[in-house]
Design a protein that fits this description.
By secondary structure, the protein is of the alpha+beta class. The protein has a single domain, classed as Lipoprotein localisation LolA/LolB/LppX (outer membrane lipoprotein receptor (LolB), chain A), CATH 2.50.20. Helices cover 25% and strands 43% of the residues. It is built from five helices and 13 strands. The chain has a 13-stranded mixed sheet with strand order 1-8-9-10-11-12-2-3-4-5-6-7-13.
């Protein structure tokens, strides 16, 4: 009986190892090129559900909404309660309708939310990843997994690492981002759609009676 149980455990372990395998450097580069080519010149929209874990909070924060991306550097994230983060590639706006407040961040300055959202836009556009990150790609049972570790100290001060899972059709499935201070963001993605450029408006004008602040001084 013990031998049968041991054989079963070994067989299961072998199956798990066979179902998840790390790609070599050449295969990883080929996969990243395929991903970038598939999204080149295209706009993308996706629905998301997110869990955010912060060290200073006893309970996680849950959000859901939609995101859109368009190269180069355009990004829009809208939550179900109306909070908005939108970048036209030059300026990031963060709008909180419940407080009638908007924050403006120029993207030509390092640090702050602007740098973080620029990095996230690049990641979700799946372009030039090897320039900014050490990439480990893995074949998993229902698609691919990318593990990204920032190369520069500036990025490492914001993000320790990020994991992205893609399905067999190279659509976004999930991501997990670990911050440098112990925070963690786990996100699931649904209904990814590809559109021609110009399908989404990435410009923002603060509504009347909105207080506009510039935390970075500009």
């Amino acid at each position: 009986m013990k031998s049968l149980l041991l054989a079963g455990v070994l067989a299961l372990t072998a199956l798990e190892l066979a179902s998840a395998s790390e790609l070599g450097a050449t295969e990883t580069s080929a996969l990243l090129k395929q991903l970038a080519d598939a999204r080149s010149g295209q706009a993308l929209t996706v629905r998301f559900e997110e869990k955010k874990v912060l060290p200073m909070m006893s309970e996680p924060i849950f959000e859901q909404g939609t995101m859109a991306f368009e190269p180069p550097g355009k990004f829009l994230r809208r939550t179900s309660d109306g909070n908005l983060a939108v970048s036209n590639g030059e300026t990031l706006w963060m709008y909180y309708p419940a407080f009638a407040q908007a924050e403006r961040y120029p993207l030509d300055q390092g640090g702050g939310p602007g740098a973080l959202f620029s990095m996230l836009t690049q990641i979700f556009e799946l372009r030039d990843l090897e320039k900014q990150f050490r990439v480990v790609a893995e074949r998993i049972p229902d698609g691919f997994q990318l593990r990204l570790t920032p190369r520069s100290g500036a990025l490492r001060r914001m993000v320790s690492d990020m994991t992205i899972e893609l399905d067999e059709s190279l659509r976004l499935k999930s991501s997990q981002m670990r911050g440098s201070e112990g925070d963690r963001i786990e996100t699931s993605y649904f209904e990814e759609k590809i559109f021609s450029p110009g399908s989404t408006d990435f410009e923002f004008s603060p509504p009347p009676n909105t207080t506009v602040v510039s935390p970075m001084g500009r």
